[in-house]
Write a structure and sequence with these properties.
It contains 11 helices and 12 strands. It has 362 residues and is α+β, with helices and mostly antiparallel strands. The protein folds into 4 domains: 12-139 and 221-239, Alpha-Beta Plaits, CATH 3.30.70; 155-217, Molybdopterin biosynthesis moea protein, domain 2 (Alpha-Beta Complex), CATH 3.90.105; 243-291, no CATH class; 301-361.
Length: 362
């Protein structure tokens, strides 16, 4: 699958249609006679004007990579994002030139320039970034493996019939794949891990996958970076939920508090803990010296109330345990009295005993 070159034709009507936001320049640009320009210059001028307008209209930009993405797939993405985002591709040199020009009036935009490298483009949006990103990455098409390319993922060949005649057994033997002949065709016995993720795909692996009709890889637009309010960060940050971010923040606060307490330096995070530890020491000295003050008195009263409440809660439980012990003792005593004469067979044992005595008398 060949990569598509995106040097878009931008018409004057498209510029008027996309330019919704107000202009930020203090002075209006002089009117330019497009008819006097060559086709190439007119194209660059319209592209520049459109890109400047998009910078004014949208607050967030997704930097996307479009390697191995075809024009049909690109059109599908544009259709899916219609009304929510605008995809704009172009020459990197021209994009960087426009960014530098816009950075004179909007300095935050300068952070975007260094990330315009390779086969990339911009997706402008004011919508939820996670939702827009999901739409982009969900548009993927399956692709066959190519010799020498780096595997995107692990490639497995499932067991089962291959539809290949027995004369091609040597091909599988060269790949160390166990096979058998079943109903006149070669059948793979076990699942085969053909290519590991990150390895180069060999020509023999490509030949096998093509014969089996397996397309193990998929290509689509990759969201590489995100620009928002002057900050550029990795797209993986969008996967972090609010709970995860809050957890990471609280972990950092704990570290700051621990460091502050260890070195004895008061910080906003460590002061509450330092004050608590100091009060513990003051309370311990007051109790040992028999000296009371208001906070210590409240602390001791609260402790006594807590002990009384715990004792009151434990009393019913102890009463239940004692009642249970009395019942178990009664049952055990009955059992003992019952078992004194042979475990419930007292009458029979007595008869046997009498018979034995009579025998002895005889």
């Amino acid at each position: 699958m060949s990569s598509v070159e995106y040097s878009e034709e931008v018409s004057a009507s498209e510029v008027e249609e996309e330019t919704v936001a107000p202009a930020v320049e203090a002075e209006e640009e002089e009117e330019v006679d497009l008819s006097s320009m060559t086709k190439k210059r007119r194209k660059k001028y319209l592209y520049r004007k459109k890109l400047l307008a998009l910078f004014d209209q949208y607050k967030a930009i997704l930097i996307v990579g479009v390697d191995n993405v075809g024009s049909n797939q690109m059109q599908q993405v544009r259709t899916s994002l219609r009304g929510r985002a605008i995809v704009l591709m172009g020459k990197n040199t021209l994009m960087r030139l426009v960014i530098r020009e816009k950075a004179k009036t909007l300095p935050k935009l300068a952070a975007l320039e260094e990330h315009v490298r390779g086969n990339v483009g911009f997706v402008f949006t004011n919508e939820n970034l996670n939702e827009v990103r999901k739409i982009i990455i969900d548009n993927k098409v399956p692709a066959a493996a190519k010799s020498g390319q780096i595997a995107q993922c692990d490639v497995f060949v499932p067991p089962g019939p291959t539809g290949m005649d027995p004369g091609q057994t040597e091909f599988f033997q060269a790949l160390n794949i166990a096979t058998k002949i079943s109903r006149g065709s070669i059948e793979i016995i076990d699942t085969v891990h053909l290519v590991a993720e990150g390895d180069k795909v060999t020509s023999s692996a490509v030949a096998l996958l093509s014969r089996l009709g397996i397309k193990p890889f998929s290509y689509g637009i990759q969201v590489q970076k995100v620009y928002e309010d002057g900050a550029v960060f990795a797209a993986a940050v969008l996967d972090l939920s609010e709970d995860v971010l809050l957890g990471k923040f609280m972990t950092a606060v704990c570290y700051i508090a621990a460091i502050g307490m260890e070195v004895g330096y008061p910080t906003t995070a460590s002061v509450p803990f330092q004050m608590r530890n100091a009060f513990k020491k003051i309370a311990a000295i007051g109790i040992a010296a028999g000296y009371n003050f208001e906070m210590l008195t409240e602390l001791l009263e609260g402790a006594s109330r807590a002990e009384a409440a715990a004792a009151a809660a434990a009393a019913p439980a102890e009463a239940e345990e004692e009642a249970g012990d009395d019942e178990s003792e009664e049952e055990s005593s009955d059992g003992m009295a019952f078992d004194m004469f042979g475990g419930g067979g007292g009458d029979e044992s007595e008869e046997e005993y009498d018979e034995g005595d009579e025998g002895d008398e005889e």
